[in-house]
């Protein structure tokens, strides 16, 4: 067995031990409580939250997909930089307000807030179901990232196309998540982020030394992109500006309304912790820029592959000694386990708090047991999805999940600042946005660029962003109509003081 394989096994087993030990990490109440199991007791400070939120948002698939896009298509991959930068001011404005009302009223999910804010059970269910459906393919993509590494390692890791290694990894993940809840990914995130930063810094140093600086890398990458079946350049053409900008903006609006993002934010012990993290998290965006540049490095290194997702593992195998390649591969695998655990918890929280709770008066004990069981089910579903569905379909469904979660923006985000909307109008707008987003995704074969035709002109933009605009238009127009029809608005259970 190669040194890279041994190091990977050792590091993964080490974080597994940490995952189980996390149940006894920090002074804790009973893990039978939803607050303790699902949100770490709402007690995480700035440092822990920084690692947890960063570990949640910057996933193994990010490690694989962003360089793959740069390798295959050039500058479009760098949309990830402005979108994360835009997301953090948005987070300061929105998430601090949400944290306050959630802490005051004991919310576990965004759908909890929507239920109290608008007093509409159907709108709450729409938010909950959308969140669960959006997070499932996101977990599956973490397995796709792990599978790429296992196939690169070969040997026992690649047995049965990596399915056995994936199954073992996710059994371990499900077990320690069930046992320790959010404390497990919070503790493991320290190791995950340290490994990722170490890998990227070493990769940048090695690559720039190998090619004599970035000028040589850009020159070689530009020539390689020009020879692609669909030729590209290092600079984005003017025709792609709006598609690029709307993709970045739409992605930024969606980033912090995913269930796993909400779970990480609500685990912070104070509003100040959330604010500090929104100020500190752009450090991860710097890392993201270097990740995208690894795609260009792959082009400059002459890597040839029909699957761009293999570029990063192949590049690491080429530039690193075998033992350090094992460290890099472990960074990717552990980088999948951390967000997958948080995503599973976030999805389980929605089901337990917003679907199951209606049928049980025992909020803490029975609801927590239900959430724990649901994490196992969600992990199993994601595993089966990747085993029996091709990776391309997993990517397509994740794109669809992003289009769907964006349609919860009016009820959740705008609802934090105003209750002007009629809940029935919001529900109608949500339904129209879901249908429109799904239609646009299918029409473009699950790609971001949708050609909008109007007045003899065509504007190519991000399909889910168009669907959100349609959602908002319907919600705005329908609100006075429902009000005039004396449609019930429900009661607002929150107060102004709850948001302070």
What sort of overall outline do the alpha carbons produce when their principal axes are compared? globular
Overall pLDDT: 89
Strand content: under 5%
Q: Give the number of helices.
A: 21
Name of the CATH superfamily: Sodium/glucose cotransporter
What count of structural domains?
1
Largest sheet: 2 strands, antiparallel
Instruction: Note the run of SSEs as H and E.
Output: HHHHHHHHHHHHHHHHHHHHEEH
C-alpha-based Rg, rounded: 22 Å
* Highest CATH level, the class: Mainly Alpha
> Could you give the order of strands across the largest sheet?
1-2
Q: In oligomeric terms, what are we looking at?
A: single chain
Distance between the termini: 58 Å
Determine the fraction of residues in helical runs and give it as a percent range: over 70%
Give a nutshell description of this structure.
72% of the residues lie in helices and 2% in strands. It is built from 21 helices and 2 strands. It has a two-stranded antiparallel ribbon with strand order 1-2.
Describe this structure as you would to a colleague:
- This protein has 500 residues and is mainly α.
- It has a single domain (3-396), classed as Sodium/glucose cotransporter, CATH 1.20.1730.
- It has 21 helices and two strands.
- A two-stranded antiparallel ribbon has the order 1-2.
- α5 (80-105) packs parallel to α11.
């Amino acid at each position: 067995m190669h040194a890279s394989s041994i190091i990977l096994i050792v590091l993964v087993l080490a974080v597994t031990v940490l995952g189980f030990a996390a149940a006894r990490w920090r002074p804790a109440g009973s893990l039978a409580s939803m607050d303790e199991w699902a949100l770490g007791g709402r007690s995480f400070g700035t440092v822990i939250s920084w690692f947890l939120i960063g570990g949640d948002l910057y996933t193994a698939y990010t490690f694989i997909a962003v360089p793959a896009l740069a390798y295959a298509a050039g500058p479009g991959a760098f949309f990830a930089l402005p979108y994360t930068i835009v997301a953090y001011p948005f987070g300061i404005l929105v998430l601090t307000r949400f944290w306050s009302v959630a802490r005051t009223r004991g919310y576990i999910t965004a759908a909890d807030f929507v239920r109290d804010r608008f007093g509409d059970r159907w709108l709450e269910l729409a938010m909950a179901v959308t969140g669960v459906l959006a997070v499932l393919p996101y977990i599956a993509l973490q397995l796709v990232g792990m599978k790429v590494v296992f196939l690169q390692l070969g040997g026992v890791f690649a047995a049965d196309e990596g399915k056995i290694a994936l199954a073992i990894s996710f059994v371990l993940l499900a077990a320690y998540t069930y046992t320790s809840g959010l404390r497990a990914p919070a503790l493991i995130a320290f190791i995950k982020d340290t490994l990722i930063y170490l890998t990227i810094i070493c990769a940048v140093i090695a690559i720039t030394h190998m090619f004599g600086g970035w000028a040589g890398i850009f020159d070689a990458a530009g020539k390689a992109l020009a020879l692609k079946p669909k030729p590209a350049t290092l600079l984005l053409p003017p025709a792609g500006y709006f598609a690029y900008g709307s993709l970045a903006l739409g992605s930024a609006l969606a980033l912090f309304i995913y269930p796993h993002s909400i779970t990480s934010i609500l685990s912070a012990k104070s509003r100040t912790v959330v604010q500090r993290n929104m100020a500190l998290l752009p450090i991860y965006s710097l890392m993201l820029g270097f990740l995208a540049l690894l795609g260009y490095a792959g082009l400059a290194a002459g890597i040839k592959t029909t699957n761009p997702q293999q570029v990063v593992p192949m590049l690491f195998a080429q530039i690193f000694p075998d033992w350090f390649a094992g460290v890099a591969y472990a960074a990717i695998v552990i980088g999948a386990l951390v967000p997958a655990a948080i995503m599973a918890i976030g999805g389980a929280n929605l089901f337990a708090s917003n679907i199951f709770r209606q049928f049980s008066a025992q909020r803490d004990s029975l609801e927590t047991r239900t959430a724990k069981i649901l994490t196992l089910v969600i992990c199993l579903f994601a595993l089966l999805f990747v085993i029996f569905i091709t990776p391309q379909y997993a990517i397509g469904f994740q794109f669809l999940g992003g289009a769907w979660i964006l349609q919860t923006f009016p009820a959740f985000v705008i609802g934090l600042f105003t209750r002007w909307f009629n809940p029935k109008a919001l529900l109608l707008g949500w339904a129209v946005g879901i249908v429109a987003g799904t239609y646009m995704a299918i029409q473009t074969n699950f790609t971001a660029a949708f050609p909008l035709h109007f007045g003899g002109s065509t504007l190519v933009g991000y399909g889910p962003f168009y669907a959100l605009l349609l959602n908002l238009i319907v919600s705005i127009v329908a609100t006075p109509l429902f009000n005039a029809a004396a449609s019930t608005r429900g009661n607002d259970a929150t107060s102004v003081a709850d948001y302070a």
